[in-house]
Amino acid sequence: MTVETFTATPVRVVLADDEAMIRAGVRAILAADPGIEVVAEAGDGRAAVELVRAHRPRVALLDIRMPRLDGLAAAAEIRRVAPDTATLMLTTFGEDDHVARALGHGASGFLLKAGDPRELIAGVHAVAEGGAYLSPRVARRVIELDAGRLARRPAARDRTAGLTEREREVLALVGAGLSNAEIARRLHLVEGTVKSYLTSIFTRLDVRNRVQAAILAYEAGLVDG
Q1: Is the dihedral of CA 88, 8, 213, 134 positive or negative?
Q2: What SS3 class is residue 63?
Q3: Domain 11-143 has CATH 3.30.930.10
Q4: Which of 44, 63, 115, 121 could cysteine-pair with 68, CB 3.0–4.6 Å?
């Protein structure tokens, strides 16, 4: 698998999943990118919190269902004891209620265990940069689950109609899960310009973060698939 290094200093990751084979598979995918270093592994949420406290990683990659302390509770505790550590949740389609709850509590990102390995690497880098990452398949599922509430909002196409053409391009790439660095390369911009576009987009669309922006991009039909 060919991967791309996003940062000069490896992103330090604590990985937590109660299934040893899942941990081994995730670790192998992350090890393919020299820009990522798994510094510790845990088999339950309580151990994950303690490892984050000890190692202070940039990212905690957490399974939602774990013994002793589930991923959502572990993420909340990590935000309390290590606010500089971003939490990235591993989920399945059978855990829709957990995804909805975590969205409401500001989790940094969501990935499917059965998803494309490239999404795992992109997600780690995205949240490490201070952004958020929503697997495209998870984004579509969240939209389906939230259809009733979304129907009561102004139409997504109307909300995005006031954006400039360049802002719409940036929003579409956010919806596709690209990091600021990737967006900059794709559009031949510098990262500072991308950040300025995102600030404007978030303000004009009244969204708080990249996850909400990504969902809106899907609602508006800006992202293929």
Answers
A1: negative
A2: strand
A3: no
A4: 44
